[in-house]
Each structure stands twice: as structure tokens, then as C-alpha cells.
């Protein structure tokens, strides 16, 4: 199975909130010579409480998570360009306008 992880740090002055442990990261697109297939997986039943991230703290977001209901299977190795969106919120109830950043990364999968 293929999963993606992004470590990031809150460099702002305000506390931000991420939706549960490891969430907030989504794959927007994947292109390249590698063949990756989305496959169904059982969803887990964990509670996703908001996690605060204060100035200078770092955490890791990953996708897919067990609450996504799918995984990625590597069918053929090669290069893979992935576009991600990382999201966070200004309040602990995960309301209000979420903030996002676009991330581009290139991988070589074997």
C-alpha cells in the first residue's frame, strides 16, 4: 500500500486546529509513470477530535487515513508527481473558513 505523509510546523502567531490526528491532507492529483490505483478499504470507527497546534509546534498529516475508506495500491513503479491540499481551521470546533496550502511533491516508487 502507498501512503503519503507531510510534516509541517505552525510558524504563525495564532493557534490552529487540525481535524484529528493526522488528518487535513488530501491528494488532488497524481500523474507520472508509476501506476497507483485507489482501492476500497474498511473504515475505522475512531473519534476525530480537533488537535491544537500552537506557534512553533509541528505535526504530521497523512493520507489516506483509516477514515477515508480507501487506500492506494502500487501497480507499477516509476515516478509520481502528486498535488496535495493541506487544511487547518482557526477554531477548535472546526468551524469558520478553513485555511489551505497547496503542496507539490515528486516521488519515485519501486
Shape: globular
Q: What is the ordering of alpha helices and beta strands?
A: EEEEEEEEE
CA-to-CA gap between the ends? 12 Å
What is the domain total for the residues?
Answer: 1
Poorly predicted ranges: none
Tell me the major beta sheet: 3 strands, antiparallel
What's the tally of helices? 0
Mean pLDDT across all residues, rounded? 88
Gyration radius, to the nearest Å? 15 Å
| SS content category | mainly beta
Percent range for β-strand residues = over 45%
Query: What's the helical proportion of residues?
Result: under 10%
Q: Tally of extended strands?
A: 9
Strand order of the largest sheet: 3-8-9
Task: Write a short abstract of this structure.
With 110 residues, the chain is mainly β.
What does it look like?
- The protein is mainly beta and 110 residues long.
- The chain is 0% helix and 57% strand.
- It has no helices and nine strands.
- The chain has strands at residues 4-9, 16-19, 25-32, 35-40, 50-53, 58-63, 70-76, 78-88, 99-109.
- The strands form four sheets. A three-stranded antiparallel β-sheet has the order 3-8-9, with no helix packed on it. A two-stranded antiparallel sheet has the order 1-6.
- It is globular.
- The mean pLDDT is 88.
